[in-house]
Design goal:
By secondary structure, this protein is mostly helical. It has one domain. The protein has helices at 7-32, 58-97, 113-120, 127-144, 151-172, 183-192, 195-207, 210-213. The radius of gyration is 24 Å and the shape is elongated. The N and C termini lie far apart (73 Å).
Length: 229
């Protein structure tokens, strides 16, 4: 109904949509919902966001940074959880189809070949979901990595886990994927090269906080203030 001519165009759009959704949900919303926009210019002064963090201060590092690190670590080990959960469900369906007689290869409740294939074959391989997960991990780690350096090894650990799981899954778990062209890969690489831009912007912002990195606090004073007696 969207009107794409090829499967590659369709999955490329799905990949980009999932990436932007997960990246905003993981890296942007956690920043916006905890930020204090009370003194920010329009339109943020109209938003109902009056949290306690006007900057990347010590309280932000104590409260928000661990939450972000925990989210990224869960994403890093999720490929194993996905295989265990959905692979276990598939094995359970196979056992129920064989009436718990798993050693009998001829035992089945399926009445047609297609029903037998639906039970015993693995799920379809969603390559665009894998690309979007890698992009999200890379972007979030680059966005916060200069002042939360543990995110870089966590992202590398997550990509390594995905490589191991997907290699084994394509051999023993997933169905044979369709023959994609290089459009999905080109879109992913095109998006990947802009990840350092977020690192430069947020790294400059965070490292400009002298109270965190240089133990120096600049107190703003005004000549027309009433002195403290």
């Amino acid at each position: 109904m969207v009107g794409f001519q090829t499967k590659s165009e369709q999955v490329s759009l799905i990949m980009r949509s999932i990436f932007w959704t997960t990246f905003i949900n993981t890296g942007i919303i956690v920043l916006m919902t905890n930020a204090n926009f009370q003194n920010a210019p329009f339109p943020f002064n109209l938003a109902p966001m009056r949290s306690q963090y006007p900057d990347f201060n010590d309280t932000w590092y104590e409260n928000i940074a661990p939450q972000l690190t925990q989210t990224m670590f869960i994403a890093a080990i999720y490929p194993y959880l996905e295989i265990i959960i959905f692979g276990g469900i598939m094995k359970l369906k196979v056992a129920l189809d064989k009436s718990c007689r798993c050693c009998d290869k001829t035992k089945t409740k399926a009445t047609t070949t297609q029903l037998f294939v639906n039970v015993h074959a693995g799920p379809e391989y969603m390559m665009h979901f894998k690309y979007s997960s890698i992009l999200t991990q890379v972007y979030v780690s680059f966005m916060y990595g200069l002042f939360i350096p543990i995110l870089f090894p966590i992202a590398a650990f997550g990509i390594l886990n995905m490589y191991i799981v997907e290699k084994g899954g394509l051999l023993w778990y997933y169905r044979r994927p369709p023959m994609y062209d290089d459009m999905l890969q080109r879109y992913a690489l095109q998006y990947m090269k802009y990840a350092p831009v977020t690192m430069f912007i947020f790294g400059y912002w965070a490292h400009g906080n002298t109270g965190i990195f240089f133990n120096k606090v600049d107190v703003t004073t005004h000549y027309n203030d009433v002195p403290n007696p």
